[in-house]
Amino acid sequence: MPLVTSTEMFKKAYEGGYAIGAFNVNNMEIIQGITEAAKECNSPVILQVSKGARAYANRTYLVKLVEAAEIETGLPIVLHLDHGDSFETCKSCIDDGFTSVMIDASSKPFEENIAITKQVVDYAHAHGVVVEAELGTLAGVEDEVSVSAEDSSYTRPEDVQEFVQRTGCDSLAIAIGTSHGAYKFKPGTKPQLRFDILEEVQKRLPGFPIVLHGSSSVPQEYVKMVNENGGHMPDAIGVPEDQLRQAAKLAVCKINIDSDLRLAMTGTIRRHFNEHPGDFDPRQYLKPARANIKELVKHKIVDVLGSDNKI
Ligand code: G3H
Ligand code: 13P
Ligand code: ZN
């Protein structure tokens, strides 16, 4: 099966009350860990590449690695651009074989966001590619752009119908309290996503797929693993997994996870070197890192997203 768009996946996910995991990829081991997990769980999956990941690996390698994963697993896989910052970046990815792009003009004024998004939609749809757009701003760091908690803003439900109608986008990322990175909520606080906003959005856009960014849960076992092996991660808590499960039962069809994979990889490699200080063959530490990414993704698919056995 060639790489697919998310159209069919989202339709089934919406109707079935589950979500598709969108995992960020930066190298071969991450791609293998995610897709081996999806294969074992018989789950569709979205592999997403940020502008930074594309700059790190160059524009060819990640596309070819994702194509290799598709050949190896036979899974329905979407290759998605995460946080496209301009028409040019989106066009370049579409021309390179991505099946889905995000244009993130959420920091721009409403009319400007509509104009840029519409330009991307016109080009993407003419090439059989789907488009995710964003309304509202999340706090946190993405591609070196840092948004403080004060500058973040929840999505206004009264804007979503007009935005979707005028842009023709295929899915919409909204801000309901999640944020990017490993430091989302202060320890001791009780994170609570704004389900009232999600439900209002859903009422105004019945059947339309909603996307949640910043959805890592920051597993404490991996924070501990990093810190017990020479790292210095401040205490932090992520998005509670039961709230993600609840969102997946509503209109949320795509849940973005990156930081949890980074934590699993870094924690595992730190521990490996602590336990085997003499190792210098990269395969010795990348192998357990890949295995732990696989376990983490299996847990997300089965216990959080509910996308197992949905092929
Ligand atoms: O939302 C941002 C993603 O976690 C990607 O991060 O831009 O550092 O690759 P990155
Ligand atoms: P996390 O930082 O919570 O993993 O979010 C990732 C994301 O939203 C990628 O677009
Ligand atoms: Zn994001």
SSE map:
Blueprint: H1 7-16, E1 20-24, H2 28-41, E2 45-50, H3 51-57, H4 61-73, E3 77-84, H5 87-96, E4 100-103, H6 110-126, E5 130-135, E6 140-142, E7 145-147, H7 157-167, E8 171-174, H8 195-204, E9 210-212, H9 220-227, H10 241-249, E10 252-257, H11 259-275, H12 282-305
Parallel strand pairs: 1-2, 1-10, 2-3, 3-4, 4-5, 5-8, 8-9, 9-10
Antiparallel strand pairs: 6-7
Helix pairs in contact: 2-4, 2-12, 5-6, 7-8, 9-11, 11-12
The structure holds glyceraldehyde-3-phosphate, 1,3-dihydroxyacetonephosphate and zinc ion (ZN).
Descriptive account of the structure:
This protein is an alpha/beta fold and 311 residues long. Helices cover 48% and strands 15% of the residues. It contains 12 helices and 10 strands. It has helices spanning 7-16, 28-41, 51-57, 61-73, 87-96, 110-126, 157-167, 195-204, 220-227, 241-249, 259-275, 282-305, and strands spanning 20-24, 45-50, 77-84, 100-103, 130-135, 140-142, 145-147, 171-174, 210-212, 252-257. The strands form 2 sheets. Strands 1-2-3-4-5-8-9-10 form an 8-stranded parallel beta barrel, surrounded by 10 helices. The protein has a two-stranded antiparallel ribbon with strand order 6-7. α8 links the parallel β8 (171-174) and β9 (210-212). α2 runs parallel beside α4 and α7 (157-167) packs across α8. The longest helix is centred in the C-terminal third of the chain and has 24 residues, at 282-305. The radius of gyration is 18 Å and the shape is globular. Zinc ion is lined by residues 83, 142, 180, 213-214, 256.
